Amino acid sequence: MSDTQQDSGSIRVAVLGAHGRMGRRAVDAISEAADIELVARLGSSDRLDAALDAGATHVLDLTVPEASPQNAAFAVEHGLHAVIGTSGWDASRREQLVAQLGQSPRVGVLIAPNFSLGSVVASAVAAKAARWFESVEVVELHHPDKADAPSGTAVRTAELIGQARAEAGVPASPDATRHDPHGARGAVVDGVHVHAVRLRGLHAHQEVLLGGPGEQLTVRHDAFDRGAYMPGVLLGLRAVASHPGLTYGLDGYLDLD
Amino acid sequence: MSDTQQDSGSIRVAVLGAHGRMGRRAVDAISEAADIELVARLGSSDRLDAALDAGATHVLDLTVPEASPQNAAFAVEHGLHAVIGTSGWDASRREQLVAQLGQSPRVGVLIAPNFSLGSVVASAVAAKAARWFESVEVVELHHPDKADAPSGTAVRTAELIGQARAEAGVPASPDATRHDPHGARGAVVDGVHVHAVRLRGLHAHQEVLLGGPGEQLTVRHDAFDRGAYMPGVLLGLRAVASHPGLTYGLDGYLDLD
Amino acid sequence: MSDTQQDSGSIRVAVLGAHGRMGRRAVDAISEAADIELVARLGSSDRLDAALDAGATHVLDLTVPEASPQNAAFAVEHGLHAVIGTSGWDASRREQLVAQLGQSPRVGVLIAPNFSLGSVVASAVAAKAARWFESVEVVELHHPDKADAPSGTAVRTAELIGQARAEAGVPASPDATRHDPHGARGAVVDGVHVHAVRLRGLHAHQEVLLGGPGEQLTVRHDAFDRGAYMPGVLLGLRAVASHPGLTYGLDGYLDLD
Amino acid sequence: MSDTQQDSGSIRVAVLGAHGRMGRRAVDAISEAADIELVARLGSSDRLDAALDAGATHVLDLTVPEASPQNAAFAVEHGLHAVIGTSGWDASRREQLVAQLGQSPRVGVLIAPNFSLGSVVASAVAAKAARWFESVEVVELHHPDKADAPSGTAVRTAELIGQARAEAGVPASPDATRHDPHGARGAVVDGVHVHAVRLRGLHAHQEVLLGGPGEQLTVRHDAFDRGAYMPGVLLGLRAVASHPGLTYGLDGYLDLD
C-alpha cells in the first residue's frame, strides 16, 4: 500500500473552534462517523501543537477570520490536510496559501464557503442552466433575525448566473416594468433580480427561477438547521487527502461536471 | 314553482364586450355550459336594446370602465341580473348602483374585480390566517410584459392582510434587516412586504407565506391562462339571481365563512 | 371587573406529562410566555392534587390515552380549565366529558388533535375550497422513520374534503388513468388521492392541490420541528376559559368562518 | 470562410409532419426566428424530394415512428442535417443510423426524446445530484386526461437516478413504512418512489425531491403548454450542423457537464 493510500485511508481529525456552534455540531457528526476518528477538540486558548501531539492527520478549521490563515499555515507546514469552513478567505489570502502548498505537494486543503451539499449543487446547477433560459431571478428566504439582505449565498448565486450569461452572450432577462413605486422588483445583482423574504419559522432557503416560453425550471434548496452542513463537512474530510493542493468550494469534489 | 325559482332556473345571457379577449373566452365558456343559454353577443357599436330583443334574463358586462355604469343601470332598469367584470367600480359608483337597486329589490348584481375562484379563495384565506402567524409576506410572479409592480391583486391581498392584522392587534412581522443596499426586501404595502418576480413562461401567480415558530403556511394560486376566469364567470351567472342587491367580490358567493 | 374576566385574565398552569418530549417543550414555551404562569410540572408518578396545591387554574394534559380521561375528569371536577393534546379521545369518551361539563357550566375544555395553527388552518381551508375545484389531491411528506402511510393528518384532511364535496354534490375528480402498473396514483381516501413521500431532512409537511380549468390553488403546511405546536398550545391556554364547555379541535378558537 | 462554417451559418429547414400539432407549432416558431429559414412544410402525402427541390439544408422530423427512419435515411443520404422529435428510436434503429452516418462524416443528426430545455436540464441535474443525498423521490403532475401513470419522463428520470446511485454505491433511500394499506407510497421504479398527481388545470410538471440531514434540494420543471418545446427545437436546428454524427438527447448540446 502506498503512503498516499494510507493517508487517504486513515482520517484522524483535530477540530479547531470545537466549542462554537458549528464546532460542537461537527464534533458530534465526526463522533458518529465510523470511518473518521476525532483526536482533538481545540478552542481559542489551546495550542495548535496539541493537534500534532494527538496524532492528527487532518484539521477541521471552524474558527474566526483572524485565526484561520495561521491555522491553515500550521497544518500545511506539518503535512496535515485541512478542511476550512471559516469565512474571510479572499483571493489574496488564498494566493498565499497556494504558494505555501507548492512546498507540500501531497497536502490537500479545502476551503468551503458553504458546506451544504444541496446549496452547492443548487448554485452550480443554476449557473449552468441560466444560459438556456430567457429569464432568471433569485428568491432567498431566511429567519427574521438576519441582518443582511440579500444573503451572501444569494449574492454569489446571482454573480455566478450573471457571469455565465455574460460569457454566453445571453441578453438581460426581459422586464417591461415601468411603474414600481415601492421597489417590489427587489435588488439587482449582476443583472439578476434578487428578492429577500424574512419569515419566522424558516432557517435558510433559496429558489432560482428560470423561465422560457411555456416552461419554468425551479431549483430550490432548503436548509432546515445546522445539521444541513454536516454531510458536506464529512465529505470534505474524506476527500481532501486525495485532492492535493487548494480546492476552493465543495463543488470541486462533487464531480458535477 | 315560485317566480323566484323560475328566475333562478332560466339563465339567458347577453354578453356585452363580446369581441374582446375576455369576451370571446366567455362566449366559448357559456356556449359549452349546458344550463346557460347565450342569447346575444354585443360589441361597443351595438344597442343595449338588443339584449332585451333577444329575451336576455342576465347580462355579462366585460366592457370598459367608461361604459360599464350605463350598462349596469340599463340592466337594473329592465330587471336583468348583471355580472360585471369590468374594472373601475370605485365606492362612489357602487353607491349609485345600490341606490338604483333599491327600486328593483329582486334584481341581483355581482361586481367581480377577479373571476378566478382560486385567487379569490386564496386572498380570503390569507387574510383570515394572517392574524395567527407572526410573519407574513407576499410574492407575486407574472409574465415579463407586465408594466406594473406589484400586481393589483397583490396590493389588495396585502391590504386585506394588513387590515386583518391591525384589527386583531397583531404586531408587525419581525425583521432585523439593517443592511439592504439594493432593496432586496421589496415593497411594503400596509406593513406587508410584497415581492414581484417577472419571468417568461409565467402568466399570473401569487404566494402568501405565513410563518410562526417551527412552521410555515403557504397559500399559492396559479393562473395559467385566461381560462382560469371562466369557472368564476359561470358561477356568477348561476348565482346572481338568488343574491338580490349588489355583491362586491366573488367571495360573497363562495360561502367561505 | 367580573369574575369571568378575572378567570380569563389569570392563567396558572399545571402541566401533566411534563417530562415527555411535548411536555418539556411546553414547559419551556409556557416559561417564556409573560402572561401565563407555570405552577406545576407533573409526571406519571405525581398526584393530581399537586395541581390544586399549587393553585392551578388550568391544566395542560400531554399524557397518554390511558390517563387522559381521568385527568380531564379531575380538572372539571375541581373547576380547572383543561387543554388536552393527548390522543385517543374518540366520540364516546368525548360524550362522557360533555355530560360531566353539564354540571360545571363555567369550565372550558379544549381537546386538540393537532396544535399546529398552520395545519389546522390548512385543513379547514382545504375542505372549504374543495367544493369549488374540479380536482383535488393531497401530498404529504414526512421523515423516513415514520411507520404509517399516509399520515393521520392526511387521512383526516382527505375525509374532510371528501365529505365537503359529497355534501355539495361535486363529482369525483376526473382521472383518465387506464395504465398504472405500479400504483403511482397512490392511495384513495374518501375519493381523494393521497400520496406519501418519505425524505430524510423533512419533519411533517402537507400539500393540498386543487385544480380547475387554467388554474391551481395550493395550500401547503410545513412543520419543521415540535416548536410548531407551541403557539397552538399557548393560544389554547389563553382562550379556553372564555370558551366554556367542550371544544374539539383548535379551529373552534380560530374564527376561520 | 470554410465550407463547414457556411453549412453552420445557413439554416434552411424542411419540416416533415408540418400539419400535426407539434408541426404547426414548429412552423410558427421557425417563421419567427430571424436566423432560420422555413423552405418546405411537408405532410404525409408529400414526396421527400420536395425538401431537396426547396433547397433545404436541414430537416425537422415530427412525424410518426413508422415514417421517421426512412426520413432520417433520406436526409443523411442527401447530406441534410436532421433534427428528429419523433418517438420510437430504440437502440437497434439508432445503430443502423450510426452505420449510415459513417458514410457521411459531415452530417449531424439529433434525436431528441424531449425538446423541453427545462425538462432535459432537470433530469440531468437530478441524476448527478442523486449520488449526494440519502433520499430521493419523484413526483410528476399532469392534466387528468392522461392515460398512463407514471409519465414516461418520470420513469426515465427514476431510471437515470437509480442507475447513478447504483454506480456510486449509494444505498436505497431509507423508508420505515410498515403500514400502507392503500398504496400511498406510490410506484417504485429502479428503487425510486414515483408519485403521479392528476389535476385539471395542469399540463406537464415534475419534481425531484432530494433529502439529507437537515436539508432538501428540489428540482422542479413546469411545462405549461406545447410552446415549452420550441426553444429546444430551435436550439437543435442551430447546433446540429456543428455536431456531426448522431447525438441522442438534447443534453448532448447543452454543455451541462
From TrEMBL, chains A, B, C, D:
It comes from the Bacteria. Its main location: cytoplasm. One of its GO terms (biological process) is lysine biosynthetic process via diaminopimelate. Keywords: Amino-acid biosynthesis, Cytoplasm, Diaminopimelate biosynthesis, Lysine biosynthesis, NAD, NADP, Oxidoreductase. The keyword NADP applies. It is found in: Cytoplasm. One of its GO terms (molecular function) is 4-hydroxy-tetrahydrodipicolinate reductase. One of its GO terms (cellular component) is cytosol. Residues 120-252 form the Dihydrodipicolinate reductase C-terminal domain. Pathway: Amino-acid biosynthesis; L-lysine biosynthesis via DAP pathway; (S)-tetrahydrodipicolinate from L-aspartate: step 4/4. NAD(+) binds at G17, A18, H19, G20, R21, M22, G85, T86, S87, A112, P113, N114, F115. Belongs to the DapB family. This is 4-hydroxy-tetrahydrodipicolinate reductase.
